[in-house]
Fold this sequence. Notes:
The chain is an alpha+beta fold. It has 12 helices and 28 strands.
Amino acid sequence: MRVNFRSRTFVVLMLALAASALMILAINTAPRSTSAAAAPQSSTSHSALPQQSYADVVDRVAPAVVTIHAARRARAPQMPEFFNDPMLRQFFGGGNRSTPRGDQTRKETALGSGVMVSADGYIITNHHVVDGAEEISVDLNDRRHFDAKLIGSDSPSDLAVLKIQASDLPVLSLGDSDKVRVGDVCLAVGNPLGIGETVTMGIISAKGRKTGLSDGSFEDFLQTDAAINQGNSGGALVNTQGELIGINSQILSPSGGSIGIGFAIPSNMARNVMDQLTKNGKVSRGRLGVGIQDITPELAKSMDVKDARGVLVSSVDAGGPADKAGIKIGDIITQVSGSRVEDMNALRNRIAASAPGSDIAITVLRDGHEQHLHAKLTELKEDTEAADSEKSGGKETSSGQLGVTVEPRRNGPGVVIDEVEPGSPAAEAGLQPEDVILEVNHQAVKSGTDLRNGVKSSGSKPTLLLLSHEGRTAFVAIQAK
């Protein structure tokens, strides 16, 4: 029995050793295609790593980014008369007897950047770089120097177009800024602080930003953390394909230096403005003729609106495009030409980018129902009109615990706020004396009694007021105490 057991054990061990040998032989003699099959995984993993160099992109972009010198004359400070005293000149210097007195000027030079957009010398930069300049010159990447002519400048968008007399120049192609995504890698190229052409890298941090720092309301910035400093203004923001996606314009910083919050004008807006400045020397923008505001959570609650997206119409210009199209105060504009409207800045830019005379489709929400309207835009011009808020005697204290004292208007609808109680709901909502309350909960107000009754009818919901402040109307939701 023991002999048989040992024999069987020996046979099993031999078979196991043979199987192991066959496995090792199979592994060593496996076809090369088996190893190659694993290659795509390694390749895919490697391709997911960040790009190690953008030198090729910079080589294409840098020659098209230029340095701009803008010179203007400024009055030099005049020396007081007593500095002509010889004794004082010994201590303070200057005051040469031969120096003529009277109006004296000195040259001030601003430094910025620009982007070459055509081979025959058209350059786009910021309005604030060349604003007020009497002499403009341009330095190219290859050290060539040119005098430049201002073709046109547009303060609301902070863009300007220059022209130099040259040909076969390096250019930067304009990309589609609408396709830019938050998180995309970008490069900022310019001449910060006059140290020479510099490249910084970051990502697109946000889109559709509004800073309120420009001389106008047409802001639709790309935000980036790529370092932008003084002198970068007008320079290029490019994607990793070397396409221009923005014109560097502003930074947000308490110190004046970059803290990673920079803003660039989208290339699509720049293209529109540039084309108009090049052809006409000015920019024409569409006008709808409405006063608008964003919908706050308080406004949405008081209006029984679940979706706070869209733009609330707070005024309609009589006889204007919106009036003729049937748009009414209290309508919520949700779409323009089939595109969703998220906020008032997006709507303003959409209308402004449309040419005067354009027919646009507008979708509004009115009393919970969609209305589809069409408007023909007119040309936007500077509005210099201001509304008067004339008052008469007879103060009336409104109940409803808003905390305001009102009196009827002498001319026109509504009641005028005479006093606002400190710490009251009205004060917290920003109401001020001289403001005019036109409506309460969409009902016209003619007296303090109308106001009190309207506040009372609100119940537990915020009271919706239509106010006129310095000639501009807006809705305000106030939760009465």
